[in-house]
């Protein structure tokens, strides 16, 4: 695809920036930003000035470069970008074959501020279309154009062309200044108070996204009017409280309006995107750790305009990533089971060619897991609180989500651990020593040690978890495995072989967290014990034999509702 991308030479960028008469930029937009040459030149021109730069860029690779430079990508196609913030400056080098459309669209977006655009001179010298004629009138009434030859052939040009260009300058003044002064003379205090009647909330589930965007736009409109009223109210208050000589600066309400609007708009946009992220339509199947990872990336999403197309694009991205998210959830739960007590895991010879990774592979035991309570002090008063703590409920909810997913079900359709613990009287029964059952585990609780003992009852689902994680971490092969290799025989006999393994707690810790020397020593000791155990069990494992494909660990489809 030809994006008509001609990076702006530094010399031309400096010339363009010099055209701005307002040397106090606050919020800047660079449409069709490319790799941010103009935006970077603007930052270099005002090195000690705090400013926000928004970029619109179609090319995905360039979007990544812009974000790496610390710039916000708020949209993809500028001609479809409906704006949001009130910009003080728009600096642009649009595609040469669409210069008229881009500059006119920028003019429509601008409320009060300046535009400098680098366009093909032919656009102005040969105004044979209505758009070109309209652009010529806008320039005649609100600015000027300066023509330059050879601007893209100088030594600092990355992509050269001998096309003549025009540097267009436009200044747009907000009618808010006139509206403000007009209302100063027309407004009068009202003694009566009209009752506010809110609109009915739109809450149809099948229109969730459309209604959320409508609500956001209504909130922005109401916020804008509120700010205008606040500026007027402040002006009246100042008139009452200060002398005429003290009113300096009150003739620039547009600048105050721009600052207040942008701050409030950013807050509304973040809230709107957050409502999408937190909606059960999106997150109901994600575990807590997966939610945190998604939230950590969400800052990039909130930079985008809050439109239906962007929301659907975000949801489509989630659906495309759902396999990765599900695998990460499975790994998180696997690690929760295995990290606290070495007895919760059994080692086997993994498939990775690196010997250290081979022997450090492990699976979960099939008979019992011991898990510490998240807050031991909470369980010291277990008969008083009569429930598990919030942190443990979140952890058990992750278990429910993953085991339901691996079983091809939803969390709501199973009798999981969370439902078991929430059921009235169950926690007291556990404290008194009873053993209760959910769909995938039987549970015992020991209040003195604040530990939960989980006994798997569906070993097929647990084995599915072992295989999903094993394949993801390359402990299990993706390719077919020959029976002569003995791989699956040693894998399935891991619990029996591990009965002979003796590793100290420190050696277990060194396997994953130790220095290179500590890991090597612990791995070698474990490798030798596994080999001895396999020999005792009469199992021969040769990892160098040919392999065959095994798809037993594939995840079931689990769609993310949109």
Quick summary:
With 562 residues, this protein is of the alpha/beta class. 48% of the residues lie in helices and 11% in strands.
Number of domains: 3
Q: Span from first to last CA?
A: 30 Å
Q: Uncertain runs with pLDDT below 50, 5 residues or more? A: 176-206, 353-357, 546-562
Q: What structural class do helix, strand and pairing data support?
A: alpha/beta
- In order across it, which strands form the biggest sheet? 3-2-1-4-5-7-6
Instruction: Please count the helical segments.
Output: 25
Proportion of helical residues: 40-55%
Strand content: 5-15%
Quote the average pLDDT.
Answer: 78
- DSSP, total strands: 13
C-alpha Rg, in Å?
A: 32 Å
Largest sheet: 7 strands, mixed
Describe the global form.
elongated
InterPro entries: DUF4942, SAM-dependent_MTases_sf
Domain DUF4942: 268-474
Pfam families: DUF4942
Organism: marine sediment metagenome
Topology summary:
Elements: H1 10-18, E1 27-30, H2 37-45, E2 52-56, H3 60-68, E3 72-75, E4 89-92, H4 99-109, E5 113-120, H5 122-125, H6 130-142, E6 143-148, E7 165-172, H7 176-186, H8 208-241, H9 253-278, H10 280-283, H11 288-296, H12 298-302, H13 308-320, H14 322-338, E8 345-347, H15 355-359, E9 362-364, E10 369-372, H16 376-380, H17 382-385, H18 390-406, H19 417-422, H20 426-431, E11 436-437, E12 441-446, E13 451-456, H21 459-472, H22 487-492, H23 494-498, H24 505-513, H25 516-536
List descriptors.
3 domains, DUF4942, four-stranded antiparallel beta sheet, single chain, disordered C terminus, 13 strands, 25 helices, 562 residues, seven-stranded mixed beta sheet, Rossmann fold, alpha/beta
